[in-house]
Amino acid sequence: MSPPAASSASIAEVHVEVPPPPGMRDPLEQLADGETRARRRYVLTDTGFDEVPKAFRKFYRRWGGESDVLEPNEVLCPVCKVVIRSSRELRVGDRVYCMPCMSRLVVVRGANGLEGRTVF
Amino acid sequence: MSDFLSAYSIQNWLESCPQGYLVDTEYGHRPGEREPELLLTNELLHEETLRATVQLVVGERCALAASSGLINAAPDEGSKRFLATQTVDEARHVEIFTQRLYDLGVAKAELESTIAAYANPNLVKFAEVLLEKVDRKDFVAGVVGQNIVLEGMAFSVFEMMHAMNADMNPKFAHTLTGTIADERRHVGFGENRIGALIRSEPERRPAIERMQKEMSYYMLATFADAFRNNAAADEFRRVERELTGGTHAARWQGVDLAQMEPEAMEEVLADTVLKEFKVRLGRIGLEYQTPVRP
Asked: Which of B4, B79, B174, B191 should we substitute to test contact with A (largest number of A Cβ atoms within 10 Å)?
């Protein structure tokens, strides 16, 4: 019996394993239980969000309300309710920038998954 | 801090707003779009639409006076530049909502008398509380009143109006889309700039919290006047049913506004805005003060 295939990547998602250089480990790659794994990478496409300069539009999308399920590379800006998208999987402690409202956020774990918290 | 303030650039505003979501718009909506015929011909709906639009003009005139007045009170160049862009945003809002009054048939010579006739006295009081702080060049109180209380209210009101108009009145819904995008920047500036400043001036908190309580009361009183005993509400619903066969839905904050009584809509709007105030003020280190309910 052959082993199960590794998770297949969709068109919008490319999983890249990047081994750290010898002796180096990004602390953001460290999971709570000590396990480490590379972050998933995402290919971002324009979602029609037009409230920031063109070069940055793919990093944001409109929020669909409470029923909107965020991907592992997404976090909701609590200030302006726009979804911020990263080209890599987000983890607790990451810092992200919300260009539509110019808020600096740090990713924290909330009741419903990852959330952004403002940093002044 | 310098990086934070450098985001408030005219170039950033140009690329986001006039060269972004406002490209190819005409008074905020797509060229050629018109108000639905019924809003012009049905007397009850026409008057209610005029009344609602006048409140938007009054609110935006207040925001224009406040943002322009705060420029010279701002303690740094970044804030001055941001408030300059906000002043243009607010002037645009005044213009597009005034244009809507013209589109609804108000003659230019009758603009001021129409505004005086329909302006809600509680909304005028709300504006006076804020503008008194601006006149005293009180930057921190002015920005909290303008960019968190007034803009926070506008953000929710515009979103609710957008949900109600998205299917029935695309012209007005498109006009609101651009104003909602503007409000994102305005509330962001309010939280980020004051979140940093209030920590260095903790003695200011009680007076600012009292201002929030007073403005919140007049806001709730304005909502009460708008929703309670609203003679046009039944007519709006009758027309909606006639046009859509009762299938029209207007989802916002987990409810269907198209199926709700005006009093229930008032409750959803008031609760949403007050909850947002509480969360936003908490983030910048201010304690939300519960207003008296009118």
From this structure: B191
